[in-house]
Amino acid sequence: xxISRNEQRALHVLALGGCILHERGDxxxxxxxxxxxxxxxxLADFDLTVFNRLRQKRLIxxxxxxxxxxxxxxxxxxxxxxxxxxx
Length: 87
Known about the structure:
The chain is built from 3 helices and 4 strands. The protein has helices at residues 5-15, 48-56, 72-77; strands at 19-24, 30-36, 60-61, 69-70.
């Protein structure tokens, strides 16, 4: 499966414990999303199109209306990256 660089970054943040916060408009459609790391920093290049692609590929999921997190399938597709936090 082809995963873009922005999708891969978002999956990496989610695999490290981050989440995707979403807001709905008047209806059931999601109008805005924000990818937040576990250190409460916001991923800048994450938008609604990246969110929709991750959801269509079933790499992220929401349970009971909570924030979106990485799914089991998403964990298998995330590639290893060097962690910038140091040892």
